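Exam prep: given the inputs below (a chain plus CU-O-CU linkage), describe the expected output before reading on.
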Amino acid sequence: MQRKPAQQSKHMSNKDEYERAAKKSQPKRTFPQRLTSKQSMSVQTTRPIFAALLMLCGKTTVQAQYQTMRIPQALYGKEFKLTLKDSFRQLRTGNQTITSGINGDFWGPTLFINKGDTVRMDVLNKLNDSTTLHWHGFHLPAVMDGGPHQVIPPNTRWKPYWKVTNQASTYWYHPHLHEMTQEHMTKGLGGLIIVRDSMEATLALPRTYGTDDIPLVLTSRRYDAANQFVYKNSAYGDYLLSNGTPNATFTLPRQMVRLRILNADIERGYNLGFSDNRTFYVIGNDGGLLEAPVSLTRLPVYVGERYEILVDLSGLAEGNTLDLKAYNSGRSNSFPGGEPGTSGVFGSLLNNTDFSVLHIIVGARTSNPILNLPTTLVKQTYLKAGDATNTRTLNVTNGQPANSPFRFDNKLFDIKFINHQVIRNTVEKWSVTNNNVFGHCFHIHDVQFKIVSRSSGPIAAYETGWKDAFFISRNETVAFVARFSDEADPQHPFMYHCHFGNHEDEGMMAQFVVAEPTQGTAEQHTPAKFQAYPNPANDKIYLTSEDPSSQIYYVNVVNAAGKTVMMLPQPQAGIEVSNLAPGVYFLHITNQRDKHQSVITFLKR
Ligand code: C2O
Ligand code: CU
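Solution:
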C-alpha cells in the first residue's frame, strides 16, 4: 500500500531532543515529530553539516542518509499509562512500514522508577490482537509479570503493580504472547525501564538522559518488497535500527558518556567496540551495577541482555567522529548472526560483517561534565555456588534433524504443564547444558542471578554482576545461582526460555511455580462471598467479604456483551470504574486462598 511520506526527525539538536524527551510525564508523546507535508519534503539528512561536508567532497555515500537517533520519551513517577497500538513509520524510501508502538508509533517511552516505590501500570491494548506486556528482569509476584498467562485482549485494560525491589539498572518491557512474541516485538512493541536507587545516586556517573546518559536499543529488521517487516521464516534483519532509527548518528559531549545498551533483537548478537579501538568500561549488568568498572575493547551483547558502559570522549575535539560498531565478522559458528549467506531464514545482509550501530559526532562539553572514571561502584553481596540448597539441570534438546524446534529437556512449551516447582525463599543452582547445534540466550523470569561457572572457561569479568539473561554457546554448560522469593502458582507461573523470539515461539520455553512448602494442604473453606459497594457506582467500587481472611487474587470486569474490559491482579482498595461506559458489569472475582471464582454484578452510572 502507498502511504504518504512523512516524519523525519530532522534539524533538531540533541539538546532540543533531550529537553523535549525529558519533560516530566507529558501526556502528549514527544517522539516522533510529525512534520507537515511541506517540511517533510526537505532532505532526509539530519545533519546539515554533514550534507555540506559531503557536497564539498563531491561524494554521495551512505553517510548522506544519517539520521539523528531518536531518544525515547522519558516518563517519571509511580503511575504509568501505556497504550499499545498499531501505527506506521517512514523507515525507508517508499512505502511507510506498518509498526506497533506504545504511546507512539514504534517502541515505547523509557520509564524512570525508584527502588522502594510501588509502581502502578495502566496498560491499554488498542492493537487488533491480544498481547501481553512483560516487565523483564523484575522481582514481582508472577500474577503481575506479564508473561504468556496474562493475555490482554484487544480493548482491555490491565492494571498490574508491584513494589520495586530491583537495584538501579536498565530493564525493559515487551510483549510475551506465546507464538506471537517474534511478530509483536518485530513490529516494535517494547520499552526501557530505568531503576534508580540511593546507592547509584551517590556515584559521580553521567545521568542526564539523552545528553550524557544515552539509551541504545539495538534491533535489525528485514523488509519485504512493499517495505513491510518480515517476521516469518526469518531469524535476522538486514538493516539495523538504533532506537528505531536507521543509519543512526548522535552528538555526544566530549566527556564521560554512559550508554545503556539493550539487545532487543530476535536472534542477532552484537560484538560491540569503537572504530578507533578505544578502551571503554562496563559498569553494569542486567540487574545492577558492578563493584568496579571493567575495561575492555570488545563487548558481546546477546538478545535480552543489558550493559551499561562508560566511554571517555574527553580527549577528542569537537567535530571529531567515531563509530560504535558491531564487529560481527569472523565469529564462531554458534554466534547468532555469524552464519554465512545474505538471504534465507538464517542469512542476512548484516551477517558475518562489521557494521556501525551508532555514528558518533563529538560535541561540546556540558556544564557539569563527568570527566573521571569512578574507581569503585557499589558493594554487592553476590550469591555463591555454595549458597544453593537445591540443584536443577536443564538440557537444550532437539534442533536436529533440521526443523525439529529447540526445546528444554525434550519437551516443547505446554502452557498447562508446570515443569518445575521451587520452594519459596530457597537459593538454587541451575545448570544449563547445550550439547546442540547452535547457541541460545537463556532468560529466567523474576530473579536476578549470578553466573557461577561456564564449562568453556573462566567467566568474563564483564558478566560477573547480577544477570537475568546469558548466552550459552554450543557444547557449553552454564550454571547460575538465584534466590526465588516471589510467589508463582499454576494459574500464573514464571517462565524460563530462550530469548530468541523465534525459538521461544516455537516452544523453547518452560514454566515454574514458587510456593511455600506448606501450601497445598487440603484445608476446606466455604468459598468467600464478595459484595460491591457503592452499587450503582460512578468512580470507584470497593469489594468486601463476610470472611475477613479472604483476599482477592484477581478481578476481571466483564461487560454485558461478555467482553473483559479490565483485568485487575490483586486489586487494592477501590477499583477505578470512572472510564467504563454506563451499564451492567460482571465482576469475576478469584479468591486468593482457594482460587475459587465468584461472579457479582454492579451497575455503572
Ligand atoms: Cu524478556 Cu520471558 O522475557
Ligand atoms: Cu534458542
